[in-house]
């Protein structure tokens, strides 16, 4: 079974930029009720989708106190628990970050490590790619970052 996930968060001042559980030095972070880790959110929805489960907001409702500033790696750990409950195996995930800035590829290995550990799969099975939006649209105007992901579950 496969699943797809997509998420977007807006840039904000005075917020850390957390992607794949890695704090990346940048002038702006992302706004959100959680730590706004757009990559982990897209991956969580892909894994949940592959399991035929409801989306991230079902398990981590926006606005709930327990979700305030939550580290989104905890969300991936919840996905790992759900996989175990259903006796399902996560084969791999692949993802793309769409961001005009900053460059994220220098942080790829650290992100793969964090995400793999949280999901219980080797980092080699965590695909992370990045692209700019060639200055077009909200990403191109540096208003935010988008992420998309797919997951395969057996
Ligand atoms: N936020 C980003 C965007 C891109 N990269 C890397 O740069 C390459 C070229 O991106 P283009 O959008 O100009 O094609 C891309 O393949 C990534 O390796 C990045 O690290 N961070
Ligand atoms: C995890 C949650 C919890 O509020 O994070 P948010 O920062 O609100 O991010 P979003 O991707 O808009 O929705 C997912 C939410 O469930």
From TrEMBL:
The record marks 33, 132 as: Transition state stabilizer. PROSITE patterns: ISPF (PS01350). Keywords: Isoprene biosynthesis, Lyase, Metal-binding. Binds 1 divalent metal cation per subunit. Its EC number is 4.6.1.12. SUPFAM superfamilies: IpsF-like. 4-CDP-2-C-methyl-D-erythritol 2-phosphate binds at residues 7-9, 33-34, 55-57, 131-134, 138, 141. A divalent metal cation binds at residues 7, 9, 41. The keyword Cytoplasm does not apply. It comes from the Bacteria. GO terms for molecular function: 2-C-methyl-D-erythritol 2,4-cyclodiphosphate synthase activity. It catalyses: 4-CDP-2-C-methyl-D-erythritol 2-phosphate = 2-C-methyl-D-erythritol 2,4-cyclic diphosphate + CMP. Pathway: Isoprenoid biosynthesis; isopentenyl diphosphate biosynthesis via DXP pathway; isopentenyl diphosphate from 1-deoxy-D-xylulose 5-phosphate: step 4/6. Residues 2-153 form the 2-C-methyl-D-erythritol 2,4-cyclodiphosphate synthase domain. InterPro entries: MECDP_synthase, MECDP_synthase_CS, MECDP_synthase_sf. Its cofactor is a divalent metal cation. Homotrimer. Involved in the biosynthesis of isopentenyl diphosphate (IPP) and dimethylallyl diphosphate (DMAPP), two major building blocks of isoprenoid compounds. Catalyzes the conversion of 4-diphosphocytidyl-2-C-methyl-D-erythritol 2-phosphate (CDP-ME2P) to 2-C-methyl-D-erythritol 2,4-cyclodiphosphate (ME-CPP) with a corresponding release of cytidine 5-monophosphate (CMP). NCBIfam families: ispF (TIGR00151). Belongs to the IspF family. This is 2-C-methyl-D-erythritol 2,4-cyclodiphosphate synthase. It comes from Luteolibacter algae. The lineage of its organism: Bacteria, Pseudomonadati, Verrucomicrobiota, Verrucomicrobiia, Verrucomicrobiales. The gene is ispF.
């Amino acid at each position: 079974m496969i699943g797809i996930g997509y998420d977007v968060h807006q840039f904000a001042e005075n917020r850390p930029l957390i992607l794949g559980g890695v704090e990346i030095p940048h002038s702006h972070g992302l706004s959100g009720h959680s730590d706004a880790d757009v990559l982990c959110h897209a991956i969580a929805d892909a894994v949940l989708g592959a399991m035929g489960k409801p989306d991230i907001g079902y398990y981590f409702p926006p606005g709930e106190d327990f979700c305030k500033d939550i580290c989104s790696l905890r969300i991936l750990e919840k996905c790992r628990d759900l996989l175990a409950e259903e006796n399902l195996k996560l084969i791999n995930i692949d993802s793309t970050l769409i961001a005009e800035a900053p460059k994220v590829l220098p942080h790829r290995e650290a992100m793969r490590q964090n995400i793999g550990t949280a999901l219980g799969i080797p980092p080699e099975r965590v695909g992370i790619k990045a692209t700019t939006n060639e200055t077009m649209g909200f990403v191109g105007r540096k208003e935010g970052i988008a992420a998309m992901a797919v997951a395969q579950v057996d």
